[in-house]
Specification:
By secondary structure, the protein is of the alpha/beta class. It has a single domain, classed as Vaccinia Virus protein VP39 (Rossmann fold). It has 6 helices and 12 strands. The chain has helices at residues 2-26, 66-70, 92-99, 123-153, 190-198, 243-252, and strands spanning 48-50, 54-56, 60-61, 82-86, 103-109, 159-163, 175-181, 201-209, 219-221, 239-241, 255-267, 276-287. The strands form 3 sheets. An 8-stranded mixed beta sheet has the order 3-11-12-8-7-4-5-6, with helices on both faces. Strand 4 (82-86), helix 3 (92-99) and strand 5 form a beta-alpha-beta unit. Residues 1-25 have low confidence and may be disordered.
């Protein structure tokens, strides 16, 4: 009798543990907000054409140059691939990859506390920090809402993972393509983030960002006490890297450079709505082992 009760209790505990693991497994990806999102509460980092709404956006307008940005013109294929969008923001690249036939996972930070703010100790910056922190929080919330607004408007099937870019979990699975769009310069430890994502990539990594001209592999540290303490970018821009520096980073991680293309992309982020163009480099590299097959 005692053995039967003990066995029943053991089976119940196992069942509960299995259910708990299932909840953890299914909760890897974020669920859409329960309440409808008002468009006025959104901050669209990218320009979109949304059904029944029209054009939205106040930052990067990649609609005419998205294939260059994604590396398609350098031979990157998205049809039938599993793709990771590292630093999705408003999701334009995720939805573009999905439109080209990919199963997409959009990654972004789990909370605003993970936003790498430059920790200035100089008094002028310390005085301005509360205002910058508040501005960062509002931007973070608005951008996240804009992603889900566009996700719903476009009837997207992209999955969303919120977490730590420096330690992406193996549970996300394997990816054919990892898209790293304009995120590395905004991270305290860009190489660790690149390593974290590269571990999950079986084939192709695409890195697109501004890169100064020059053949040498170098990175420049942008924070300076000479910067303006009232400028938002003083706290969020960490690095600028040459193309060869990115290529060398990828080589260390086991990826062979297969092509680079410099293209000017429309951007109004720094000009208060006036269109200007930012020249960016798209660097494509393939895992060395994938080139042997």
């Amino acid at each position: 009798m005692f053995k039967e009760k003990f066995k029943a209790l053991l089976n119940k505990a196992r069942a509960q543990n299995g259910a708990s693991q299932a909840v953890q497994s299914t909760s890897l990806y974020a669920e859409p907000p329960n309440e409808p999102i008002e468009i006025d509460s959104c901050e669209f980092y990218h320009h979109f054409n949304l059904p029944k709404i029209g054009e939205v956006g106040q930052g990067w307008d990649l609609r005419e140059t998205v294939n260059e940005y994604l590396g398609v013109t350098l031979g990157v294929e998205y049809q039938g691939k599993r793709a990771l969008d590292l630093g999705t923001a408003s999701g334009f690249l995720s939805f573009a990859m999905e439109k080209q036939g990919s199963e997409v996972v959009s990654y972004d930070m789990a909370s605003q506390a993970q936003w790498n703010i430059v920790p200035y100790q100089e008094p002028r910056f310390q005085q301005a920090l509360p205002k910058i922190t508040q501005q960062t929080a509002l931007s973070y919330q608005g951008i996240r809402r804009s992603y889900w607004f566009a996700h719903h408007a476009l009837s997207s099937s992209a999955k969303v993972f919120y977490g730590d870019v420096y330690h992406l979990p193996d549970a996300l699975g394997r990816f054919d393509v990892v898209m790293v769009g304009m995120i590395l310069p905004h991270l305290r430890d860009p190489f660790q983030a690149l390593y974290s994502a590269s571990r999950l990539c079986d084939d192709t990594i695409v890195v697109t960002q501004q890169c100064p001209l020059g053949e040498q592999p170098y990175g420049l540290f942008l924070p300076s006490v000479q910067n303006s303490p009232d400028n938002f970018e003083s706290y969020h821009a960490w690095w600028v890297f040459s193309e060869q520096c990115i290529i060398n980073m990828l080589a260390v991680l086991g990826f062979v450079h297969v092509g680079t293309k410099r293209v000017s992309h429309k951007c109004s982020a720094r000009t208060r709505g006036q269109d200007t163009y930012e020249e960016c480099s798209t660097i494509v590299a393939k895992r060395r082992s994938s080139l042997r097959t």
